[in-house]
Design a protein that fits this description.
single chain, alpha/beta, three-stranded mixed sheet, 29% helix, 17% strand, globular
């Protein structure tokens, strides 16, 4: 495969309950439809995985995760995240969670990210379904209590460099020894008993970033984060299935509205059954005619 300087990358490791390759297929379709410049998505898969030909055509490259599957016995498959630096085929990469969709061309974001002095940039300000910045730390009290960089690894940018290499190498060490690092960096009152990619990379960035410039409040990159308790709802009983409170729908031209709000930013929908056959068919029909 020819080497390309810029591209999107995501891990798509299927589990017993979720077809993540299918979600990555939806993401790739949305990128093909919405982006004018960089629209290629490569995926990292569990070694030995057979990709359905219905999905394979849309991916730029299908890459077996290097050095085996570090998440072999894990349902969330987080333990391979540090390998993104080595798995990506691009000099500049936007690394995404695969349960996302794009509706607007973000070509200008590449230019802004490329021009920054920081070689690794994660989203640290995200939006609710109305496009408003989220201030609640309902799911992020560990970050608040421990003064960690408030990063969201669902959307991260990095370019090949010594600094990026060191960040991902350090993240590897933390992934392998996460309980030790949690004990060192997190106070007991807000110390989770589970592995978190956001926390791992936040600790790595705290160690690496002397002037804190990589996690100051920034507007780009960002995305719409659909966890229920940060949407600003004042219901007595909030469901983690946000569709019980607001209805999403797609038009035949792949315009997505949640409630009465059109979605413009990358949508981190999170609910793995959000991607229906109808949504896939909408994108497939649009791409056939482009």
């Amino acid at each position: 495969m020819p080497h390309k300087s810029k591209g999107f990358f995501t891990f798509a490791q299927n589990t017993e309950n979720t077809d993540y390759v299918r979600l990555a297929y939806a993401l790739a379709l949305s990128l093909k439809h919405s982006q004018s410049n960089v629209k290629n998505l490569s995926i990292g898969i569990t070694p030995g995985t057979t990709i359905d030909p219905r999905y394979a055509w849309v991916f730029d490259q299908i890459i077996e995760i290097p050095w085996g599957d570090s998440a072999l016995n894990s349902e969330w498959k987080l333990e391979n995240e540090w390998k993104a630096y080595w798995a990506t085929p691009y000099d500049e990469t936007i690394k995404l969670d695969c349960d996302m969709l794009f509706f607007t061309d973000i070509s200008s974001w590449w230019d802004k990210l490329s021009s920054q002095s920081n070689d690794v940039i994660f989203a640290n300000t995200v939006l609710n379904w109305r496009g408003e910045p989220i201030s609640s730390d309902f799911y992020r009290k560990t970050f608040t209590k421990n003064k960690l960089p408030n990063i969201y690894t669902a959307f991260g940018y990095f370019r090949k460099s010594t600094f990026s290499h060191d960040v991902f190498t350090l993240a590897k060490i933390i992934f392998w020894n996460w309980e030790t690092f949690y004990n060192e960096f997190l106070e007991p009152i807000e110390r989770p008993g589970y592995l978190s990619t956001d926390i791992v990379f936040s600790i790595a960035m705290k160690i690496m970033d002397q002037d804190k410039s990589s996690y100051r409040s920034i507007e780009i990159p960002t995305f719409t984060h659909m966890k229920s308790y940060i949407q600003g709802w004042n219901y007595d009983n909030i469901s983690e299935d946000w569709r019980e409170h607001v209805v999403p729908f797609f038009t035949p031209t792949a315009v997505c509205r949640i409630g009465n709000h059109r979605q413009f930013y990358p949508l981190h929908y999170q609910l793995k059954d959000f991607i229906t056959d109808n949504i896939l068919e909408i994108y497939e029909d649009l791409l056939k005619n482009e």
